[in-house]
Amino acid sequence: MTLYLMEAAFLGKLLADRKNERPLSDEELMAGLAAGDMSSLGTLYVRYSNWVRRVLVRIVPGLNRFEVDDLCQEVFLSVYSQSGRYVESGKFRSWLYTIAARAATGHRRKRLLRMKILDNHMKSFGAEDRMAAPPGVRPEVAEAIVRLPRAQREAILLHTVDGFSCKEIAEALGIDQNAVWTRLHRARKSLHDALAERK
Questions:
Q1: Domains in the chain, please, with CATH?
Q2: Contacting residues for 143 by C-beta, under 8 A, at least 6 apart
């Protein structure tokens, strides 16, 4: 579901609310959402999206507008997916805060890890994008690694030089483990072919 669908769902809910004259409480909206009423999600989105955006920016300063929009959408999709587990207690806002804080913290952790990884690997490259070979790596292997597409190079270096597991690489790069396996497989094949040509 996109934000556009949430907003469209809200319009339907707004018309229903006008007929009822009384806005539904957060708990009533969550009960409706758990029962499959998607317009309830739209109402919650319009009611709390600006607040969620402020929470996200407070936890992770420096987010750009697109990152904030993506994380905000992620938060409300989590509200939708967890609606059946919501316990009515009159504390929807604190429950929502917990979801937003987790999303922001996860994003910040991934961003810091990416920055650390990139920083480590940028130190491996000179001004002409040449890689300083790690200890024990032959110059021709280092040269072949430099020629790999960036995604493959990143995966193979994280795996072989830094010792990251596929799961750790997936988390660091924000991709699934199948994508990591694919990149590693292609990188190894490219390296094998490049080194075979030199013989």
A1: 3-108 (1.10.1740.10), 124-198 (1.10.10.10)
A2: 131
